[in-house]
Amino acid sequence: MNSNSMTTELLIIGVILIFFGVATAGLGSGGEGEPALPPAVSELIFADQRLAVVYPVIQKFKNIITSDPLNITASWSGTDICNYRGFYCESPPDNRSATALASIDFNGFQLSAPTLEGFLDQLPDIALFHANSNKFSGIISPNIAKLPYLYELDISNNLFSGPFPTAILGMDGLSFLDIRFNLFTGSVPSQLFTKDLDALFINNNNFMTRLPDIIGSNHILYLTLANNKFFGPIPHSISKVFSTLTEILLLNNFLSGCLPYELGFLKKAVVFDAGNNKLTGPLPFSLGCLEKLEVLNFAGNLLYGTVPEVLCAVETLTNLSLSDNYFTHVGPICMSLIKNRVLDVKKNCIPGLPFQRSLVECVLFFLHPRYCPYIGTYHYIPCWHPHFSSSPLALADKAPSPS
Ligand SMILES: *[C@@H]1O[C@H](CO)[C@@H](O)[C@H](O)[C@H]1NC(C)=O
Ligand SMILES: *[C@@H]1O[C@H](CO)[C@@H](O)[C@H](O)[C@H]1NC(C)=O
Ligand SMILES: *[C@@H]1O[C@H](CO)[C@@H](O)[C@H](O)[C@H]1NC(C)=O
User: Which Pfam families does the entry mention (predicted)?
Assistant: First the structure.
């Protein structure tokens, strides 16, 4: 009874306040403090004009959100944009005394919206946009190319579709691109591979493209193309330009052809995974020069020949996976790795080892004549190695011209 009447009283006061608010707003008399109703943007007071500009953009976006299970958008009201959940302000590069919406972090918010068009591309001061693990869909607006400060774009694990957002190629400041785990299809423009990025994650989409002959940028650290439909050979150019790469994930594509000897120049590589492709030929000895290599996966390809001892001698290796190929020989160093369970050579054609392919399978494979170009390069070891050396070119810093 008591609490009921209390509620009623509060309600009445609320109604009176609302009427009062309407009355003052209706009078339009300025300078009398904050209006009580959500009024037109022009009457709201923002900490900075730049925030006033993005306010309607955010509210429009809020209205198209179809699902918000974590009740994130409840905080997206009022003029204090810098305290909305997921929104962060900073002074923009062009005016150190201004306050602007500089970054967005919606990671894991589980929001659904049919598009980001009209939102992301209308935030002129945005520098970082992270929105992984939401249910955003649609295509990426070409207008994002007009965002002068955007340098990190992470829209991974959403439902974006359509072709590769080529507008990205025109974004000179962009250094981090993560669009993995979406539904993008079609080809990837070859210019993407020469763009100056630190990280390029485009795995787990539906891209179908021949890898371009020239790929590489000066300081890329991560390159993941896995779980797409990339085809064609791994280009020779992967080495010099990509010498800073630490993680190269090419698994589960349709890459074919022989391995380029230049893989041995990926000096910083820690993980190289090209499992489940259609790569063929022998393993180049140059792989023994990858002195930081921990994980090397070529399982599920059409590789053959001897597993190079110089590769098995790489001391940092923890997982060398060569199962499901057509290798025919391992030496003593590789044998000890098999015993330590670092090297897996199951389902190959190595006489005397358990779990190999049937003789018939192996014979059928080798019935076809197999050939790799530049075969002379496969035995070069382009680094100094205490126990192995190849030719006078061993210390050369660049690929020898194939003879
Ligand atoms: C969402 O958050 C608002 C404000 O924090 C709160 O009033 C409302 O009850 C919440 N709704 C749900 C469904 O949790
Ligand atoms: C910089 O931002 C401040 C705060 O918004 C503003 O008052 C000032 O006019 C701006 N300066 C320039 C040169 O735009
Ligand atoms: C080694 O790598 C292969 C291929 O990526 C993977 O399937 C396997 O589980 C790994 N083994 C260990 C012990 O981590």
Answer: LRR_1
Q: Quote the DSSP letter at residue 94.
A: T
Q: 15-24 — which CB contacts under 8 Å span 24+ positions?
A: none
**Which of 149-158, 222-231, 238-247 shows the highest mean pLDDT?**
149-158
* Whole-number Å distance between alpha carbons of 247 and 70: 34
Q: What is the pLDDT of residue 225?
A: 86
Measured in angstroms, how far is the CA atom of residue 124 from the centroid of ligand 2? Answer: 15
| Fold category of 48-395 in CATH | 3.80.10
Kindly identify the ligand whose nearest atom is closest to the C-alpha of 324.
3
**The two three-digit tokens of residue 83, written as one number:** 């305290």
Does the CB atom of residue 71 touch ligand 1 within 6 A?
A: yes
- In testing the pocket of ligand 1, which one of 70, 71, 75, 109 has its CB within 8 Å of the most ligand atoms? 71
d(CA 20, CA 18): 5
207-221, 227-241, 375-389: segment of lowest average pLDDT: 207-221
